[in-house]
Write a structure and sequence with these properties.
The complex is a heterodimer of chains A (277) and B (351). In chain A, helix 3 (72-103) crosses helix 6 (146-175) and helix 3 (72-103) packs antiparallel against helix 9. Chain A has 277 residues and is mainly alpha-helical. Chain A has a domain at 81-270: Orthogonal Bundle (MetI-like fold), CATH 1.10.3720.10. Chain A has helices at residues 22-50, 61-68, 72-103, 109-121, 124-135, 146-175, 178-187, 192-203, 205-221, 224-228, 234-244, 248-270. Chain A contains twelve helices and no strands. Helix content of chain A is 73%, strand content 0%. By secondary structure, chain B is of the alpha+beta class. Helices cover 24% and strands 34% of the residues of chain B. Chain B has helices spanning 44-52, 94-104, 109-122, 138-151, 168-185, 196-202, 220-225, 230-235, and strands spanning 6-15, 18-28, 33-37, 59-64, 67-68, 79-82, 156-160, 189-193, 205-210, 213-218, 240-248, 253-256, 259-262, 274-279, 292-303, 307-314, 317-324, 337-342, 347-350. In chain B, strand 15 (292-303) and strand 16 (307-314) form a beta hairpin. The relative contact order of chain B is 0.11. The chains are: A mainly alpha (277), B alpha+beta (351). The A-B interface holds A 176-177, 180-181, 183-191, 194, 198-199, 202-203, 205, 276-277 and B 52-54, 73-81, 83, 85, 87-91, 100-101, 104-105, 132, 134, 145, 148-149, 152, 158.
Chain lengths: 277, 351
């Protein structure tokens, strides 16, 4: 089971057209219903299955066993820590880069945009083999211990988050008048650290949060890189569980789904329009 | 150079080999209000940005209060700046915006609050300290931006088209406000605008610029009434231009179409030279009472409220006359023939 990271749909008001005929409206509803069923049936079935751990009774036994599993909480915690570390690293790289590109070298925007998109183009398997080849032997031997491998894993996650993070930050920067705000702060005596801390970061809050939450959602369930780096995170734990247990994986899928939706809900809540920033 | 408060000497700016500002020389005295006036792309904003420290000059020298600030960083100059887009920090309240510069200067809280309150009074927004910028109107936001720039007690106040984003009504109010505050604080001010009316109304002196060059520097009255170049004459105010031929240089007599006119402004060209005769629309009247009288036909009549703008075709060209409206005025009618006249001192010759 992997996490889905579909972006929050932007609800725009449909353009006003002539009132549709009854039949076409019916077709629209049928398509919607089909789509909803396409998502809900597997989800419902999974949930149903997860409740049947005890013979002849519906109940949350699978969830209880899952939460009592000695590997569940440690692996989840490890992934959460990894996610937070990756988010911080990603922010420290992307925010100054995007800011500088917007302010000083807008011509380079397409190049930077392309670079940040690379994680979409390069499969995770390729990425991880590249990492292992580079860091798995001297002079850059960093895969020798669990801890140092974890550092590489976090760096890899930061890279995986670039497409989301750059897009969020870039949108945030475009939504404000970066140049004028920077110059206004400069003329009032502020240096670069102050401008970043007091003007740029606070005004990017919403953009940063949405980028961070998307990163969180990716990292929590990530399997490929973690597996090849022999890390005991949540992703490999889920995969392992799927192979060895019957009901728990379904319960896990529901829990994972819940976490993802919680993250999505947070984004929607924070980016709610009309809220004072 | 002489001891101006702000002195620009031989300032030049190139962007990738393209000259944006060339040979800019200006002395601004303390407390003076100087406008840079010109069409977009004339280099006025670039010059302002060099004074602010956002762009280094390619060559030349900028001195402020006796100090060479040519290459000083923007945040090391004590200069207040107001932007066309207001550029208020959206994450801060009005009070925090105004107090931002003081916070950077590590002024204590009490002193900062007192200064902010004083400035909120100055801009007539005493109750808005706790509001956020997006809760204010455009005019109010620009007032706050002005207060923010003034909070640091700058040596120099720079305004970059501060009224361009505002409605006409608010623009007029805020224009008066800016001038009042500037006089009250006696702060040396440079004001960039493409709006000649703003420049004329506000400034002690105007620098008219075109294509990176200074065209003329002078008081508004001087710029308007004695433009030194064709560009200044046509950019500042409306201007009539009639083709003419010099008849008698000394007497200032010229041939216009089949008629003849006289100017007292001096003619430098030899008889027979083709020149342009210039005059302001408000100097023309639809009668035969002034020194020079031309016959013509009314083409259009535009009622503008306080002014009635009449376009008249005359032999050799077209003239616009601005008549002051009065309740008993008989409006000319398009197509009727008319006489149009202007005094000899009101017209001048340009080659």
């Amino acid at each position: 089971m992997t996490f889905t990271t579909t972006p929050i749909p932007v609800t725009e008001e449909a353009p006003v057209v002539a009132a549709p005929a009854k039949s076409s409206r019916l077709v629209a509803w049928l398509i919607l219903a089909g789509g909803v069923l396409y998502f809900l049936i597997p989800l419902g079935a999974t949930f149903w299955w997860s409740l049947r751990a005890e013979k002849d009774v519906l109940g949350f036994e699978a969830y209880r066993r899952l939460f009592e599993d000695s590997r569940f909480w440690p692996s989840l915690t490890e992934s959460v820590v990894n996610a937070v570390a990756a988010i911080i690293l990603s922010l420290l790289i992307i925010v100054p880069t995007a800011y500088w590109v917007t302010l000083r070298i807008p011509k380079l925007r397409p190049v930077v945009e392309f670079i940040t998109l690379l994680p979409f183009v390069i499969p995770a398997v390729v990425l991880v083999f590249g990492l292992i080849r580079l860091y798995g032997r001297p002079p850059l031997l960093l895969t020798s211990t669990y801890g140092s491998s974890r550092v590489i894993l976090i760096c890899a996650y930061a890279a995986l988050s670039f497409p989301y993070m750059f897009r969020s930050v870039d949108n945030g920067l475009r939504a404000m008048d970066v140049r004028s705000l920077t110059e206004a702060a400069q003329s009032l005596g502020a240096g670069w650290p102050t401008i970043m801390r007091r003007v740029i970061f606070p005004n990017l809050r919403v953009a940063l949060l949405s980028g961070a939450l998307l990163t969180f959602a990716i990292v929590i369930g990530e399997l490929t890189v973690a597996l090849f780096m022999a890390q005991q995170t949540f992703g490999p734990y889920m995969a392992n569980l799927t192979r060895s247990k019957v009901y728990e994986p379904s319960a896990m899928a529901i829990v994972a789904f819940g976490i993802t939706w919680f993250a999505m809900g947070m984004i929607a809540l924070i980016t709610r329009p009309g809220k004072r920033r | 150079m002489s001891g101006g408060f702000l002195t620009l000497t031989g300032v030049r700016k190139e962007f990738n080999g393209v000259v944006a500002v060339e040979d800019f020389n200006l002395d601004v005295t303390e407390g003076e209000f100087v406008s840079f006036l010109g069409p977009s792309g004339c280099g006025k904003t670039t010059t302002l940005r060099m004074v602010a420290g956002f762009e280094p000059p390619t060559s030349g020298n900028i001195r402020l209060a006796g100090e060479d600030v040519t290459y000083a960083k923007a945040n090391e100059r004590n200069i207040g700046m107001v932007f066309q887009s207001y550029a208020l920090f959206p994450n801060m309240t009005v009070a925090d915006n105004i107090g931002f510069g003081l916070r950077i200067r590590r002024q204590d809280t009490a002193g900062r609050e007192a200064k902010v309150a004083e400035l909120l009074d100055l801009i007539h927004l005493p109750d808005k300290g706790k509001s956020y910028p997006n809760e204010l109107s455009g005019g109010q936001q620009q007032r706050v931006a002005l207060a923010r720039a003034l909070a640091i007690s700058p040596q120099l106040l720079l305004l970059d088209e501060p009224l361009s984003a505002l409605d006409a009504k608010i623009r007029d109010e805020l224009r008066a406000e800016i001038r009042r505050i500037q006089r009250q604080l006696n702060i040396t001010t440079i004001y960039v605008t493409h709006d000649q009316e703003e420049a004329l109304a506000l400034s002690d002196r105007i620098v008219v610029m075109s294509k990176g060059q200074m065209e003329q520097v002078g008081a508004p009255f001087e710029i308007y009434n004695n433009p030194s170049t064709g560009f200044v004459a046509s950019f500042v105010g409306q201007l009539n231009r009639l083709p003419a031929t010099v008849i008698d240089q000394a007497a200032g007599r010229l041939r216009v179409g089949q008629g003849e006119v006289r100017t007292t402004s001096g003619v430098e060209s030899a008889p027979g030279t083709e020149v342009s005769l210039m005059m302001r629309p408000e100097e023309l009247t639809l009668d035969d009472e002034a020194d020079n009288v031309l016959e013509g036909t009314v083409e259009t009549v535009t009622f503008l409220g306080s002014i009635v703008r009449v376009q008249v075709a005359v032999d050799g060209g077209r003239l616009i006359a601005d008549l002051f409206n009065e309740r008993l005025l008989r409006l000319p009618v398009a197509g009727e023939s008319t006489q149009i006249s202007f005094p000899a001192h009101a017209c001048w010759v340009m080659v």
